[in-house]
Sequence to fold (165 residues):
Amino acid sequence: MSLQTLEDLYVDELKDLYSAETQIVKALPKMAKAASSPDLKKAFETHLQQTEGHVQRLEQIFEKLGKSPRGKACKGMQGLLEEGEELIAEEGEPKVKDAGLIAGAQRVEHYEIAAYGSVRTYAEELGDKEAVKLLQQTLDEEGQTDQLLTKLAESGVNQGAKAAA
Fold:
């Protein structure tokens, strides 16, 4: 793809996000299964439902743009999720692995927050108010998930990992 205009960049970044979100939809059930903390398991299951909504919002934006969301692989997300798979495959204390799952999930959230913030700004610049609203909704949910993961880590998971030593 040739990036000649802000709209070209916007579409390219949206495709990257679409790829990222579809990868996350596949990874979250594995993360939920690997979690030993019931609260962490529930957080991953809830975020799976949200992520499916993120994919639908991106599809809405692409439909309005008259473009396909496919055609780009998000290598950044692929790398983050591969690290998570390595953690899941490791032998170890379940409470310690939960702390690692939270850290990995937060890296994913921070990647998404940065990406959604950028595309939302591009949508604003391009005057696409409907897309701005949809992207902000997703951005808000990603931030809430990040805050929930921090709360889970600070309210018991990290202490459980420390006590396991």
Notes: The domain at 6-79+92-163 is CATH 1.20.1260.10 (Ferritin).
